[in-house]
Each structure stands twice: as C-alpha cells, then as structure tokens.
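Weekly structure sync, notes
Attendees: PL (lead), two postdocs, one rotation student
Agenda item 3: pending single-chain targets
PL asked that the sequence for the first pending target be pasted directly into the notes so everyone works from the same version. It is reproduced below exactly as submitted, 60 residues in total.
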Amino acid sequence: MSEVQSEVYYVFFTDKETGLVGAINCVDYETAVKSAEEKRQEARYSGVKIKANYNGHCSY
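Predicted structure, written out during the meeting:
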C-alpha cells in the first residue's frame, strides 16, 4: 500500500491588476519556497505567502 502524504503547501498571491487571489499547491516545502520566490520576482504579484496544510488543517 502506498504512503499518503499528510502535508501540502500552498503559495498564495494577489494579482495587483485585478485584485484576484491565486494559489499554487506544492507537495513539499522546498518546491513551495521556489514557487514563492518566482512569484515575488514578478512585479505583477503581491502578498506572496506560503501556508501549510497538515491532514486537512491549514496553518496560519
């Protein structure tokens, strides 16, 4: 039986032009950090944050 991953990381960001909030889900923290760094380098996005979801509970 395969092991179930209990953690998922989300990168949240806001589009400055539209005000819409987007999110990218990542399977590990290192990938989330890389995605967040890429979003922070783009002038179009603000409020870039990483949130972890442990077994269905999101950390703030």
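Discussion points:
- The chain is about 20% helix and 45% strand.
- The beta strands are 7-15, 21-26, 45-54, 57-58.
Action: rotation student to compare against the earlier draft before next sync.
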